[in-house]
User: Fold these one by one.
Assistant:
Number 1:
Amino acid sequence: MVDIRPSRPEEAEAQKRLWKLAFGDDQRYIDWFFESCWQPEHMLLLLEDDRLASMVALLPHQLTLPGGAWANAWYVYALATDPAVRSKGYGRQLLHYADFHLTARGADCATVVPAEPSLFKFFAAAGFSTGFYNRRVELLRDETRPPRPEDRVEPVSPEDYNAIRDRLLAEVPSVVYGPELIRYQQGISRLSGGGLYRVTAGEAEGCAAVEYVDEESVLFKELVLPAAQIPRALAVFARLHPGRRCYVRTPACWEGLPGSYVQPFGMLKWYHRDKGALWREDTMGYMGLGFD
């Protein structure tokens, strides 16, 4: 028998075990999610004969729409199924249940970041469409220029990070994260050796979420700064986070560095028809952080 329902406070450990089994993540990463983000009523479970078989987390955030309107959104995250019961369609059943769960709570839409390109088709079959894009560039560190003495980067609190981010993205259709989710990203970054930063390059101020992919590769999960100042920012970061190469993600709708390219990043499913109509097919929304 299959049962789908929100989780209960005493079920956290079973969910941690399934997360580890499905994704193989470091236990510190798993524990950090449950410490910073987990709310039992926002974790949906699918049980097969009273045994946890699949689960998905729902993380609240907001979305700024073209023209300045707002939408209440939920990030569909960590959709995990026990490898022993895959191919039974449990993930699709959970997503279908999530639609009812979210609309009953007044959600305008749901968002998701497919963990790999092949999963765009999976979520498209569940009613999602691509709505968020990043501009990406890959650089070797020896391509960066020497830092200027007046430029600097400094660690920043989640609240201050959000204030900078929201100001710079005020005119961009984008995801607005609450302080809890920015704090979650801060913890993810720190676990890898990175962090959240305020960036000052000339007269421009921006922000960056930095992680290490491996010992030689630094990922700027998002670098929100005018394109002309990005080389200066990367030069300063090279002192703080050395590595042989760096990967940089910026808003797709902004001008990018030479060699940058635009790639699909996240998907949307609309429940509120009128608000969904504001998000046209050609809207290049910015999600920025994918908590992978």
Number 2:
Amino acid sequence: MTVIAVFNQKGGVGKTTTSLNLLAGIALRKQRPLGIDLDPQAHLSGIFGIRPRLADESVYSFFMRQRPLDEVSQITGSGVILCPGHLELTKLDTLLGRGVNVITRLRAALKTRDVAPGSVVIDCCPLLGILSLNAIFACDLILIPVSADYLALQGAQQVERSLNALEPVFKRRLPRRYLLTRFDARRNMSSEVSDLMAMAFRADEICATRIAENVSLAESPARQLDVFRHAPQSRGARDYQALVEELAGAGFVA
């Protein structure tokens, strides 16, 4: 089992879109991946058609009541098991603090035997609080989407600084990949951001795959579908299939 945390400290970079289609792409490999929605906005859960009315029916109860993840999980139409998010997740930093046992709770749960039959993808909130720290401590890879604009690049550079600051705790370099999203070869800014990424980050930590600006990717969440179910022949589906294959080649997806 490999755990991938999808994180950027800036919103609107394609984080949830990447989580959604990475999970769906893994499911197409005849796996049953587990998605964990740690964003209080719970957009990933909504796209998968899961909207818990009560916080107790979401991953919130895992943190507050230590309910097993499988008790709050549901199987979606994409073949993905999902632990849904809830707005009440915003209260966890105040309620729980940041003790070691708190920020490693998810890691401990995912190490439990048979908790997840396949890969795990965590959709993080954009703040570096309890939720994102749980994801970082639990994951084998941090995937950082960077949309093709300068503010997204600045957000990714902040992630790099944050991860570097955590290295003394982990006593190793945390595995990471930077993924360029919403790329449009017709726009100079897309090429400029790509060039700046090459200067800002290690070459082996930048995904070869680029996610192109694509209408189908924008449309599919509104229809509560991943791009493979909405438009399987689209450029968006091809790009996310390529991303899954790239991560599989690197040993992060079975």
Number 3:
Amino acid sequence: MSVKTIPMYKRPESLSDVRTHYCAGCGHGIIHKLIAEVLDELELREKTIVIAPVGCSVLIYNYLEVDGLEAAHGRAPAVATGIKRARPEMLVISYQGDGDLLAIGTGETVHAANRGEDISVIFVNNAIYGMTGGQLAPTTLVGQKTLTSPAGRNSADVGFPIRACEMLDTLEAPAYIERTSVHNPGAIRKTKKAIFKALKYQKEGRGYSFVEILSMCPTNWGVQPPEAADWVKSDMVPWYPLKKFRDRPADEDADKEKAS
């Protein structure tokens, strides 16, 4: 008697069948897979353009079966804005790290959000500069040791870690803002839902979406992958709470229900 096997899982069609270059325990690969799954589910692979600037995020277009374009350091939102305005029928994703989005690219980030550009920003926050060797980033925690803060971040000297979602939530225009994580399976599932909503909202023309994802960088943190995942929960989440800050369509629906 022959036994019929049914595959329980297969590689998303939007995910390239290539060997990863990311370090063991890095969260970027997980996030790439989630984006690929969402693109398949929303049937958007043939209509997507991903923008990647300088940083560990720069090679995302090697892992997704979509059109991709590289931007100068910090300028991904500006490039994404130009592409979306020229090709409004396309889905445009700006995929950025913390050194890029909140250091050299802070102005681009704030003004694209303030204009309500109809793009989806995926922001990977691992609290450090990854590609260049582990320097202090705008998101590095107080007391966290890095290559350029060997004694730990001193807030009196370089200020406090910037909370991107809270900052952008002060603006009127964004439609959707949420912070998630990939440090455990439950968090990964919630991150996929957030990415799904961000891309779906753009597909529906609802405006600017911003998903911040807390991620691991075991190599530059100097720890093993399991320790890195634990550190996200124990140290990063208290400063960067996981929550939905803005969901304009849902908020507006709730207001209408209250009014009626």
Number 4:
Amino acid sequence: MGRLTARQPVLRIRDGVCSQRPDTLAAEEPLEIRVGGRPLSVTMRTPGNDFDLSAGFLVSEGVVHSAGDVAAMRYCAGATADGGNTYNVVDVALAPDVSPPDASLERNFYTTSSCGLCGKASLDAVRTTAAWSVAEDRLTIAPETLVALPERLRAAQKVFDKTGGLHAAGLFTASGELLCLREDVGRHNAVDKVVGHALTANLLPLRGTILMVSGRASFELVQKAVMAGIPMLAAVSAPSSLAVDLAVESGLTLVGFLRGNSMNVYSGAERLHLPLVN
């Protein structure tokens, strides 16, 4: 659905002068993801690309690995008391030979727009087994290409231009070509939408690509990159300590504070064409 933005009145104060005017806000609504009719998770997201979001979430959880693993996806009618369709409930039907999600994956609480891990029973449950090894990926990229990615990501953020309130995730080639961009109020949702798009296009694993995100690099984003077979994650802000630990453990290249002509490389520096460090 296309409910990407909403209009609300706002009192604007500039240099002591007040004015009443409408403002464009990023939409945020709950999405319930079901598998085979059974509720699995609820996430707060920006409506749009909901099938990609659902598919990407299942990739991140290790449930599906290719387009053939998903038989169908649909919005559920009857989500309201009068039988209407809110377009806020997606039911995913898995292929007959695909095992349903383990009960331990079910969220005990809804997933907020800032946290994709809320309700996880334990940290061990997050460390899902990846279907592909990113450590073996032969991706290399020139630093001058990498530093250009934040601006290319920002230039493609159409809804952010209107609202100033969305995260973005973009998938790039080693030459800096933008393959896919998604925006959402949740950084983890934006990544899931990119990964879900790749799943439905049967592009997994995403070897030789760079995932560029507009915010910080958390553990969950590193996990999602690894689960999709993406060998490099770059962020304009800081990574967490656990994100770095998982990147090192997985063989993923993790770059933070990618701003202007500078960056911090926390793991996998061998994938960048860098001068020798004194």
